[in-house]
């Protein structure tokens, strides 16, 4: 795994001379537009361009392999006095924005400048790319992205057919041909751990040969999707179809990532998608994870586009209820899932998930709708809580309760409780695990023993509502997205009864953390050396984890520079520091955000307390819901 490829660094090396000359020319011809500010010069008479430093590179997508990029340059300009009564000079550091375009296929050899102007902040365009050239696709744009994909490559799949007619399913073979790709059925790994690979260029790759019982070299042409037949044998044809569509998403959305990688590493060739849901590729870990999440999210939305899929789901529910005389949707949902599975040629599990995404909660069971999604089903001992109490609450309610309730704040400040999947859960292995993406999740045991491991909150309809108590009771574990708001309050009487073994585990963890905390001084270098050694992380590893280069981490670790609040928080999250340690490190860095009046810093503090074991990307998604960017 490479340590990371940066388009900004490539631009600095490739384009600096041309950007420098453009900056020089701009200063010569249009320096007045820079609104230079000087404390010493009374009237600017002459300006002289001294130097330029690339500080920002913003990238956006263009057709083909072309990209547009805006370069933010910090200029060093010497300003001389224009009033003959004085003999003063000063140095100014204005910024300019140089907009450029170029083709990755030729290594930006054709790059050109399209405009030069004084720098100003502006919102990123919808087609923005990350520094690794992965497109930014927010969750609320996934449906639009899938629709746009189909409009370009498979428009007939968006047709909503008449009652009784089958929908138009996405046939992988047709989609592959339209993209100019080909498929190859071939065993990839002996253990079946890789179910699909996408080769961008001709490659002699190692593939498993069942007859030989060993890996052998096989020539794979570029633009080839390799599908392991074990995908069909051990799973279903629907899973195989999903694999091919998944790789097609990589081809359309992520080719530029690999073009950038090839500019650094000519041996880069493919993406390998693993059975566990991850991906292996010769690009940075963060970029690889983002690409895989996007392919995982978009593939089912392409196979089951919201318009036709929703229409057919409603049709089948109505039809099967009428034919069977069923009184509730749940009585026919298995038939509905099977019919949709056949129509769209996908797996049953994919249908279930898609139904829930589109609001058909009966597909999986009782669901609680919080933070724009359905909370996974859960159970508890009969009589454990009253009808006006709940284990589930939104992230915003969770944060508010932690602020106003000192008892809840105390429970979370020690790291004993984490906020996972909309529940405050006891931080022990029996209850908390990591899913295939590395995000914290509740274990199956926890979901069936919520009364044992989760905190309880009293719930009531907010005052002024005409909703009766009967509605409140019905919505206890099935709170839908609606016009009614609930008030939640921590009920400390109903704390779980943690088994002795789990309590002992937490005691040992806390003892270790307190021992580390006691060793921390007010010296930044000492703290960083201690914590990096404790976590057995190198500067490069921490930098890769939080998206900072090794030099930045080294300067911070040596105490040569203070990080900004975002970098400081990311260091705490990258080191997976519990609140008792992160509070101290943030203070050493010069930030007491626990007392901050700034909303952004309050949310960052919340994440440091209840989300610290999560992957960085999961914390960033959590904060993004509330308009907080942690980069």
Provide a descriptive summary of the structure in words.
This protein is of the alpha+beta class and 631 residues long. Helices cover 41% and strands 19% of the residues. Strands 1, 2, 3, 4, 5 and 6 form a six-stranded antiparallel sheet that branches. The chain has a five-stranded mixed sheet with strand order 7-11-8-12-13, covered by helices on one side.
Q: What does this entry show, briefly?
A:
This protein is of the alpha+beta class. Strands 1, 2, 3, 4, 5 and 6 form a six-stranded antiparallel β-sheet that branches.
Secondary-structure blueprint:
Blueprint: H1 7-30, E1 44-61, E2 66-81, E3 89-92, E4 95-103, E5 112-118, E6 128-129, H2 142-153, H3 172-178, E7 182-185, E8 194-199, E9 203-209, E10 214-220, E11 224-227, H4 230-234, H5 237-264, E12 270-274, E13 279-280, H6 285-303, H7 306-324, H8 333-344, H9 348-357, E14 368-370, E15 373-375, E16 389-390, H10 395-404, H11 406-413, E17 417-420, E18 423-426, E19 432-434, E20 440-442, H12 444-448, H13 450-453, E21 457-461, H14 469-474, E22 486-490, H15 500-519, H16 524-535, H17 539-546, H18 550-557, H19 565-574, H20 579-589, H21 599-610, H22 616-624
Calculate the terminal CA-CA distance, rounded to whole Å.
Answer: 22 Å
Global outline: globular
Q: What is the SS-derived class?
A: alpha+beta
Low-confidence stretches: 274-280, 463-484
Tally of separate helices: 22
Beta-strand portion reads 15-25%
Beta-strand segment tally = 22
Our Rg estimate from Cα atoms comes to 28 Å
Query: What's the average pLDDT?
Result: 83
